[in-house]
Write a structure and sequence with these properties.
It is globular and about 30 Å long. The chain has one domain: 2-Layer Sandwich (Beta Polymerase, domain 2), CATH 3.30.460. A 5-stranded mixed β-sheet has the order 1-2-5-4-3. The two termini are about 20 Å apart. The chain has 5 helices and 5 strands, in the order ααββαβββαα. The chain is α+β, with helices and mostly antiparallel strands and about 160 residues long.
């Protein structure tokens, strides 16, 4: 799940964080619905979409960092932790297919074969997927923790 203490945005269409006692699949269907290419041209929307997708695929501790003021090469880092090498590789494959269907092409991919730290470059957004021990070792939160994304929740529909 997403650490809501560190990332203060809402992936659901409503501004509420309440869980209904209804069907969970209904809640999943309200996760950011981005269907047109123009929606994903905005780096913030793309970062949120990637974070929501990772959360849906059971990637844990998903965090968005706004690094636009510090780096000229990208605007946002999306960081998450996967279970193992196979989980990370399959999530990257599914994310690439998901984004390709919406007109977003990958610019680079590093670390896929080893599967300990996979860097998925989308230009304005870079997705970092780690196994737990690698995330702890490289500790990107220590480097970029002061850049943690903390914008109030918004409806993206």
């Amino acid at each position: 799940m997403i650490d809501k203490n560190r990332v203060s945005f809402d992936f659901r269409g409503s501004g509420s964080r309440r869980r209904s006692s209804g069907n969970r699949s209904r809640e999943r269907s309200t996760i950011i619905e981005l269907r047109t290419e123009s929606d994903l041209r905005d780096p913030l929307t793309l970062a949120r979409s990637c974070a929501a997708f990772l959360d849906e695929k059971k990637v844990s501790d998903v965090t968005i960092f706004d690094v636009e003021d510090s780096l000229s090469i990208t605007s946002y880092f999306v960081i998450g932790t996967g279970l193992n090498q196979r989980h990370l590789q399959s999530v990257v494959d599914l994310l690439e297919r998901h984004l390709k269907d919406r007109g977003v092409a990958r610019r680079g991919l590093e670390g896929y074969r080893e599967g300990k730290w996979i860097l998925f470059d989308l230009g304005d957004v870079i997705v970092h997927l780690f196994q737990a021990d690698s995330r702890k070792f490289y500790d990107l939160e220590l480097l970029w923790g002061d850049r943690s994304f903390a914008q109030p929740a918004q409806t993206l529909s």
